[in-house]
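Can't paste images in this forum, so I'm doing it all in text. The chain is below; anyone willing to post the predicted structure tokens underneath?
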Amino acid sequence: MEFRIADTFADSLARLTSDEQKLVKTTAFDLQMNPASPGLSFHKLDRGKGKNFCLVRVGSDIRLIVHRSESSLLLCYVDHHDSWKSLGVDVRGRSRTLRVNYRSSHQIRSQADRLLGPSVTDVDGNTEDRRDTVSVFNGPPPRIQILDGADEEIAVVGRWLAEGVRAGTLPHEIGVFVRSEAQIGRAEEALRLADLPFHVLDDRVATEHGHVSVSTMPLAKGLEFRAVVVMACDDEVIPLQERIETVGDDGVLQEVYDTERQLLYVACTRARDRLLVTGTAPSSEFLDDLEGK
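Text version of the structure:
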């Protein structure tokens, strides 16, 4: 079943408080995963614009108006139950697909989004409008640190990893990413400092239970971890200077920058709950974007 939202839903959602939005997004996720969710009740609107308009309860005081058919479910509007003057809501604007991100927290996803534009085209030419993506859970804000040298970075990462394990994160729930094989040694040193077993992934991308996964960014897609460190985000490391030096055309150069940004974005969004991004001065220009500077 196709799952879509109307402009009126996005506009009305923005008027709710952050806690209310979280409730609505959780309900949206439930509807996408199972449109016939047994925990949700659909009530037809007597004064709706058509027979397929229904009311869905969200908490004690919030209601969704949806349009449901055999092949699609459209989120139309959301508001407090006692604030509606009429249940006949005019659904204006074009509808668009709602993508629910259940892999990364809102804090991680929204900060990583700063690396990319509102729409992204992958190497196969597929374009995705990221403005329609929502996360359904919160977490601590990502931590971004620029250190004076590699030894200081290794120490900071080692402490962060050890603290996470003491707080209950298991080694195989942790991923450490670097741009290329040249930086793998820095990741290994941090893990040795934290006294954690680790496994360096190869092209098979086979993780090992009880071991932290260490990987280059090009292998990151498809992986998921509770906690992630993205290390060695230095100037000339990402974007990779070796790639830039081989480019003679401005159009190709922009493509290189875009793909390097995408690599960092994918690495950051492998994290579900906790994310640490580090580099040494001078750091990658992408970290300024990540911090919103």
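DSSP finds eight helices and 16 strands in the chain. The CA atoms of residues 84 and 179 lie 52 Å apart.
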